[in-house]
Amino acid sequence: MEDKIYWIFILALPVSCIAWTVTKEQIFKEAQVFFSNRSEKSRYMLVRKICYMFTCEYCFSHYVTILLLIITQYKLLYPDWRGYLISGFAIIWIANVYMSLYNIIRIDLKKEKLIARQQEDKLKSDKIVVIDQHS
């Protein structure tokens, strides 16, 4: 049983990585813009919902998890369809915790870079003023 619990945390890693990359990273920017526009402007509700799936990391993680469960045949607690269901929701939840933590770390790093850049610009402007005063 401990093996099964351990594997939830491992299987959630590729789910979070794929879901985040497809929905947030620059490499898929064109697809994100396309699906975002279609999810907002399509006349058909089904098209809007399907396209939205590719813009939301939480939504997309469900479909990545389904694919992963098909590939791995991982089941938790029960050996039948109930095991798939329980493991699916457990993996999705943990993958989204991973993505939330990753997002918090990214925001902190961006904030630190911004503060460092502002301090650097201030030092440069102070240095220019000091040099001008000596001229």
**Main sheet specs:** none
Strand content: under 5%
Overall structural class, as computed from helix and strand content, comes to mainly alpha
What is the helical fraction, as a range of percent? Answer: over 70%
What is the 3D shape?
Answer: flat
| Mean of all residue-level pLDDT scores | 89
Nearest-angstrom radius of gyration?
22 Å
Q: SSE string, helix = H, strand = E?
A: HHHHH
Cα end-to-end separation: 76 Å
Low-confidence stretches: none
Number of DSSP strand runs: 0
Count of structural domains: 1
Number of helices: 5
What's this, in brief?
By secondary structure, the chain is mainly α. 85% of the residues lie in helices and 0% in strands.
Structural write-up:
The chain contains five helices and no strands. The chain is an all-alpha fold. It has one domain. Helix 1 crosses helix 4, helix 2 runs antiparallel to helix 3 and helix 4 crosses helix 5. The longest helix has 54 residues. The N and C termini lie far apart (76 Å).
Give keywords.
single chain, 135 residues
List the helices and strands and how they pair.
Layout: H1 2-24, H2 29-41, H3 45-53, H4 57-72, H5 81-134
Helix pairs in contact: 1-4, 1-5, 2-3, 4-5
Transmembrane segments: 6-23, 50-71, 83-105
Keywords: Membrane, Transmembrane, Transmembrane helix
